[in-house]
Design brief:
- This is ABC transporter ATP-binding protein.
- GO terms for molecular function: ATP binding; ATP hydrolysis activity; branched-chain amino acid transmembrane transporter activity.
- InterPro entries: AAA+_ATPase, ABC_branched_ATPase_LivF/BraG, ABC_transporter-like_ATP-bd, ABC_transporter-like_CS, BCAA_Transport_ATP-bd_LivF, P-loop_NTPase.
- The protein has 242 residues and is an alpha/beta fold.
- Helix 3 packs parallel to helix 6.
- A hairpin with a 2-residue loop joins strand 1 and strand 2.
Length: 242
């Protein structure tokens, strides 16, 4: 692990929503090639952490370093250009646009037509169903297909770090398994992934390491397998029978 480059470093991150102190001094590291997950209950601060890294929810205090560059005060569009892709909670696809048009929006920071064409091919290879529906309106896709599109759109920016916010939310169990298999495949192909997920059991199955968030603080960090075996984690997030 220590031989790998640290791609993301978060130190003492405090973030507020109005008067609500959502993040209370988060520390977080992600190394190149890792798949890291943040688990925790609703309202623990998982999505806020992702939003602050992406520049969508401005940090009040602390520092966010991406590939050696301080991005704490940068605009979301500039953070995307540096190499951070986001698949947001709730998918947020553009329903009136086609699959292809949605994907094209994901590549808005890029200029080289050949490289963009190569990314289209890669996304269609990862998600053959999107290739079949490339001319179809995104609003007519199923929930699982919309989730594939949201991840595919984030991949179109050719991210060095992919942020995934609750990709399994609202999906049927068989689709959840498929989405997690695809996330693992994306990671194995060389994209570093930071995964926010309420389905802690599935997330820890595919992750290298995990962070446990409780009310805006990191309460535990360990290898994913160790967290799966931890009694407190099992009781709180995996169900005591797991």
């Amino acid at each position: 692990m220590t031989t790998k480059q640290k791609i993301l470093e978060v130190r003492g991150l405090h973030t507020y929503y109005g008067s609500i102190h959502a993040l209370k001094g988060i520390d977080l590291d992600v190394y190149e090639g890792e798949l890291v997950t943040l688990i925790g209950s609703n309202g623990a601060g998982k999505s806020t952490t992702l939003g602050s890294i992406a520049g969508i929810v401005p940090a009040s205090e602390g520092q966010i370093i991406f590939m050696g560059k301080d991005i704490t005060k940068m605009k979301p569009s500039d953070i995307t250009k540096l190499g951070i892709g986001v698949s947001p909670e709730g998918r947020e696809v553009f329903g009136g646009l086609s699959v292809e048009e949605n994907l094209k929006i994901g590549a808005y920071t890029r200029k080289d037509p050949k490289e963009i064409a190569a990314s289209f091919e890669e996304v269609y290879e990862l998600f053959p169903r999107l290739a079949e529906r490339r001319k179809q309106s995104a609003g007519t896709l199923s929930g699982g297909e919309q989730q594939m599109l949201a991840v595919g759109r984030a991949m179109m920016s050719k991210p060095k770090l992919l942020l995934l916010d609750e990709p399994s939310m609202g999906l049927a169990p068989n689709l959840v398994e498929m989405i997690f298999r695809l996330i693992l495949k994306i990671n194995k192909r060389g994209t570093t992934v930071l995964l926010i997920e309420q389905n802690a059991n599935m997330a820890l199955q595919i992750a290298d390491r995990g962070y446990v968030l409780e009310t805006g603080r990191v309460t535990m960090v360990d290898d994913a397998k160790a967290l799966q075996a931890n009694d407190d984690v099992r009781k709180a997030y995996l169900g005591s029978a797991q």
